[in-house]
Specification:
The protein has 107 residues and is an all-alpha fold. The chain folds into 2 domains: 40 residues, no CATH class; 35 residues, no CATH class. Helix content is 41%, strand content 0%. The protein is built from 4 helices and no strands. Keywords: Electron transport, Membrane, Mitochondrion, Mitochondrion inner membrane, Respiratory chain, Transmembrane, Transmembrane helix, Transport, Ubiquinone.
Length: 107
């Protein structure tokens, strides 16, 4: 096939070993596992959800991440909206069609 052989050097990322994810490390999932065991059931895929419960940051940092999520799109959208409103003279105050301070009506 021509070009560089991407597979020769391996993928540009490292796939973590599935052994690092243990249901026993997550109390919520451990409880699910125990409840299933009481009914004679087992979920072999339960380990796949461990990553969702891993606490990789402090509660403060998780709060900051939660509060700032979406700012990358939201702030530019807000600024563009303000610029468009200014450019077209859009006024939502409801006072745009009344008398101004010089007594001139806009009817």
């Amino acid at each position: 096939m021509g070009g560089h052989d991407v597979h020769h050097h391996g993928p540009p990322y490292k796939i973590p070993s599935p052994d690092i994810f243990k249901v026993e490390d997550v109390p919520e999932l451990k409880h699910v596992q125990e409840e299933l065991a009481k009914k004679g059931l087992k979920d072999p895929w339960l380990r796949n959800h461990v990553w969702r419960f891993k606490r990789s940051a402090s509660p403060f940092m998780r709060g900051i991440i939660c509060l700032t999520r979406g700012w990358r799109v939201g702030v530019p959208a807000f600024l563009i909206t303000i610029a468009v409103e200014q450019y077209f003279g859009i006024d939502y105050s409801g006072h745009g069609h009344h008398e101004d301070k010089h007594g001139n009506g806009h009817h």
